[in-house]
Amino acid sequence: MGQAFMSQFRISSPLRLRSDLHLTRKVWHISTGLIGLFFYKKSGISIDFMASALLTFAVAAFLFEFVRLRNEKINQVAMLLMKPVMRESERNSVSGLPFYALGVSLALFFFPERIAILATLFLIFADPIASFFGILYGRDKILPNKSLQGTIAAFSVCYIVTIVYGLIYVGPSMNLLVFAIAAGIIGSISEMCSQFIDDNLCIPVVSGLGLFLVNFIVPLF
Question: What CA–CA distances, in Å, run from 21 to 27, 129, 130?
Fold first, then answer.
């Protein structure tokens, strides 16, 4: 009876591949990030508390992934519930969610607030948009899973996000223009690093470090 019951939870159709456009996952990626930032800004909680909460969540999520990947029944239920935003590769490997929480928490722990939030915005927007353009128009490969077109999209998104973010907090200046160009380069490099490390972890950490160093040369935040 137990096997018959669990058979109702089996996913017969394959999940989306990394090469699929998978718009639902991209909307989920952007919306959850923006909701988290909105909650942080409106709640008035400290950056240390938010970083600690995200780190705790990441640890719990990694533990759940460990259990899920070793228990077929739990894995089947998890795949059914999260099917709209899961990839086929995540059926038998760690999903992006714990890396997302870990990457943002590390950025909040190690970098000044405005730098950490900007790096998080790179993760929220540049990652899915670069993937969108790379899948649709990525003809010129830089790395096996990275294209020139996707990298240009990542640069453009990070540049625009930095300009808007800088205008809100510091106003127009030559420093903002120079900083935004450097930020676009840093963001696109961090997105390419996801060829080797999960993008949800490397984008906020690598871009946060790069933005932190550039801020010493071109003071903005």
Answer: 11, 10, 11
Q: Which of 54, 21, 16 is nearest to 204 (CA)?
A: 54
* Chain position carrying tokens 């690598």: 206
Nearest to 86 by CA among 135, 132, 24, 30: 24
Domain boundaries defined on the chain: 44-96, 111-221
How many other C-beta atoms are found inside a 10 Å radius of the C-beta of residue 109? 16
Dist CA 208 CA 115 (whole Å)? 6
Q: Are 63 and 101 in contact (CB under 8 A)?
A: no
- Helices 96-110 and 23-43, packing angle to 10 deg: 30
On whether the CB atoms of residues 18 and 86 are closer than 8 A, the answer is: no
Q: Which residues contact 97 (CB under 8 A, 6 or more apart)?
A: 61, 200
Mean pLDDT by 10 residues, the chain (221 residues): 41 56 86 94 93 97 95 89 81 91 97 97 95 88 86 97 96 96 96 86 96 96 91
Element (H, E) at 146: strand 146-147
SS3 71: coil
Here the tokens at position 172 are: 């127009």
pTM exceeding 0.85:
yes
Answer for the pair 121, 218: CB distance below 8 angstroms, yes or no: no
Beta bridge partners of 146: 143
* Residue showing tokens 């649709």: 136
For residues 148 and 154, what is the distance between their CA atoms, to the nearest angstrom?
10
